[in-house]
Design brief:
By secondary structure, this protein is an all-alpha fold. It contains 20 helices and no strands. Helix content is about 80%, strand content about 0%.
Length: about 500
C-alpha cells in the first residue's frame, strides 16, 4: 500500500489538534473555563490567539488571491488592518480587561454592557446578543467556505462532502475543549501560519531566480493584462482606498478578538502581548501580500501551472504549494491554511454559543443553572450555530472576502464605537448604547441597498461603492454621543464605577 505523504502529514496535524481538545476538556471545570479559560492566559498565548482568531482563511486565501488579480492596490486592506489592530491593543485591551473583571466578572460583551449601563443594560445586552448571533453565523459561514475549498483540493471530494468534513474537524475540538483548547491550538496554528507565509515567498524567489527577474515577469504580466500590479493606487479611487483602509475600524468591535483581552492574566501582560502580536501580524500580512504579488510573476513564467488559479484566484496559495514543495512539506503547509480557518471559525463558534448560553439561556430561562449545565448548553450551541452556518455555506460560489466583509462591518459598526465610548467616556448612557448598536447594525444591513438604489441610481449618479463600516461607524458614534448628551444622564453610581475601573487600570498598567 502506497502512503500519500501529503495526506499523512495533514492527518497528523488534525489528530494533534483533536488531542489538544481532549486535554483542555480535562481542565475545563466550569462555564468561565469553557468560554474564557478562567482568565489566566499569558502574554504569548494572548497575543498569538488574538492574531490567529483574527486572520482566518482570508489571510492565506482571500488576500493573496486579491493581490494576484489586482496587484498591490488591494494591500490597503492589510494596511488598514495593521493600524487598526495596533490601536485596538493600545486603547482597548488593558481597559477592557479591567472593566469586564470589575463589572461582576462579565464573561461576554453583552454581559459587560448589562453591568456597565445599569437599569438600561438589559435592553443593551439583549440587542447586543442578537447582533452577535446574526453576524457571527454569517462569519462562521465564511470560515466553512474556506475550509471546504481546502478539503476539496486535498481529498478530491465534492464541495458538500468537503464542507461536512472540514466543519466537523473544527466543531469537534471546539465542542470538547472550549476556550482553552481554542487558545492553545491558536498558538500552534499561529506559529504554523507564520512559517508558511515566510517560507513560501522565499521559495517563490528561488524558483524565479532573483527579485529582479520576478519584477520583470510581473512587468510583462502588467502589459498583457493592462494592470499596473506594482502601483498602490492603480485604477483605485480615494473612496476605494478609504473603504479598504477602513477595515481597521472593525477591530474595536470584534467579540472573538476582544474576548482574548478579557481572558488575559492581567493588564501588565498586554504590553508584551501587543509587541508579539503586532510583529506576528506584520510578518504574516507581508508574507501574504508577497505570495500574491510574486505569484503574478511565477504564473507568468510558468503559465501551464496556472489552471487552478485561473478558475479561482483564492486558491493561489494552494496552487503554489503543489508546484514548489515536496509532498511532505505540502501536507505541513496545507495544514497552515486549515490552521487559519480553524482558529477563527472555532473562536467565532465559541463566542456565538457562549452568547446563546449566557445571554439568553442563563439570563432568561435558567438563572440558577449549574455550571456544568451551562457548559453543555454552550456545547449544544456550537452544534446549532454550526448547522445554520453550514446551510449558508452550501453555496460553493460564495466569496470568502465578501462574507467576511459583511460580518466584519456589522460588528465594527454595531460594537466598535460603543466599546470606545464605554471605556473612555463615563457619561455614556444605556439609551445611548442601545441606539448606537441599533443604528450601527441597521446601517450596515441597509447601506448596500441604499447605495445601489439611491446613490448609484439616477438621483445622484454616485459610482464608487463605500464600505458600509464607514457610515455605520460614524452614525453609531454620533447617535451614542447625542443620546447620551441630551437624554437622561448616567447615574452617579455608574460614573463612580467607571472612575474606579479607570484608576485601577492606570495603577496596573
Amino acid at each position: 500500500m502506497q502512503i500519500n505523504p501529503t495526506l499523512l502529514t495533514f492527518s497528523i496535524y488534525l489528530i494533534l489538534i483533536l488531542g489538544v481538545g481532549f486535554i483542555a476538556y480535562a481542565k475545563t471545570k466550569n462555564f468561565s473555563d469553557y468560554i474564557l479559560g478562567g482568565r489566566r492566559l499569558g502574554a504569548l498565548v494572548t497575543a498569538l490567539s488574538a492574531g490567529a482568531s483574527d486572520m482566518s482563511g482570508w489571510l492565506l486565501l482571500g488576500l493573496p488571491g486579491s493581490i494576484y488579480l489586482f496587484g498591490l492596490s488591494k494591500s490597503w486592506i492589510a494596511i488598514g488592518l495593521f493600524v487598526g489592530a495596533y490601536f485596538n491593543w493600545k486603547l482597548v485591551a488593558g481597559r477592557l480587561r479591567i472593566h469586564t473583571a470589575l463589572n461582576n466578572n462579565a464573561l461576554t460583551l453583552p454581559d459587560f454592557f448589562l453591568r456597565r449601563f445599569g437599569k438600561d443594560g438589559k435592553g443593551v445586552k439583549t440587542l447586543a446578543a442578537l447582533v452577535i448571533l446574526v453576524f457571527f453565523t454569517l462569519y462562521c459561514a465564511s470560515g466553512m467556505v474556506a475550509g471546504a475549498q481546502l478539503f476539496t483540493v486535498i481529498f478530491e471530494l465534492s464541495y458538500i462532502q468537503a464542507l461536512l468534513l472540514s466543519a466537523l474537524a473544527t466543531i469537534i475540538y471546539t465542542f470538547i475543549g472550549g476556550f482553552l483548547a481554542i487558545s492553545w491550538c491558536d498558538t500552534i496554528q499561529a506559529t504554523l501560519m507564520l512559517f508558511a507565509l515566510l517560507v513560501t515567498p522565499i521559495m517563490l524567489l528561488l524558483s524565479l531566480g532573483d527579485w529582479d527577474f520576478a519584477l520583470e515577469q510581473i512587468h510583462i504580466a502588467s502589459a498583457w493584462q493592462d494592470v499596473a500590479y506594482s502601483n498602490l493606487v492603480h485604477n483605485i479611487s480615494f473612496v476605494s482606498i478609504l473603504s479598504a483602509a477602513a477595515w481597521g475600524l472593525g477591530y474595536f468591535g470584534q467579540p472573538h478578538i476582544l474576548a482574548r483581552f478579557m481572558a488575559a492574566e492581567n493588564v501588565k501582560t498586554m504590553k508584551k502581548a501587543r509587541r508579539i502580536s503586532m510583529t506576528w501580524m506584520f510578518l504574516c500580512l507581508a508574507g501574504a501580500i508577497l505570495i500574491g504579488y510574486l505569484g503574478i510573476g511565477y504564473f507568468q513564467w510558468f503559465p501551464e501551472q496556472a489552471t487552478v488559479v485561473n478558475k479561482n484566484s483564492e486558491l493561489i496559495f494552494i496552487a503554489l504549494l503543489n508546484n514548489l514543495f515536496n509532498p511532505w512539506m505540502i501536507g505541513l503547509l496545507l495544514s497552515a491554511i486549515l490552521a487559519a480557518v480553524m482558529s477563527t471559525l472555532s473562536a467565532q463558534l465559541l463566542m456565538a454559543s457562549s452568547t446563546l448560553t449566557q445571554d439568553f439561556y442563563h439570563s432568561f430561562f435558567r438563572r440558577h443553572a449549574h455550571q456544568r449545565e451551562l457548559v453543555w448548553i454552550s456545547r449544544l450551541g456550537v452544534l446549532l450555530i454550526s448547522l445554520i452556518a453550514m446551510g449558508i455555506a452550501t453555496d460553493e460560489n460564495s466569496s470568502i472576502l465578501a462574507l467576511v466583509a459583511h460580518a466584519w462591518a456589522g460588528f465594527g459598526a454595531a460594537f466598535g464605537p460603543l466599546i470606545l465610548f464605554a471605556l473612555f467616556w463615563k457619561k455614556t448612557t444605556g439609551k445611548g448604547a442601545l441606539t448606537g448598536i441599533f443604528v450601527g447594525g441597521l446601517t450596515v444591513i441597509c447601506w448596500p441597498t441604499f447605495q445601489d438604489i439611491v446613490l448609484q441610481g439616477v438621483v445622484f449618479g454616485y459610482h464608487e461603492p463605500l464600505y458600509e463600516i464607514i457610515p455605520g461607524f460614524i452614525l453609531s458614534a454620533l447617535s451614542i454621543y447625542l443620546v447620551s448628551s441630551f437624554g437622561p444622564p448616567a447615574s452617579r453610581v455608574l460614573q463612580a464605577n467607571f472612575d474606579s475601573a479607570n484608576t485601577i487600570y492606570h495603577n496596573e498598567k
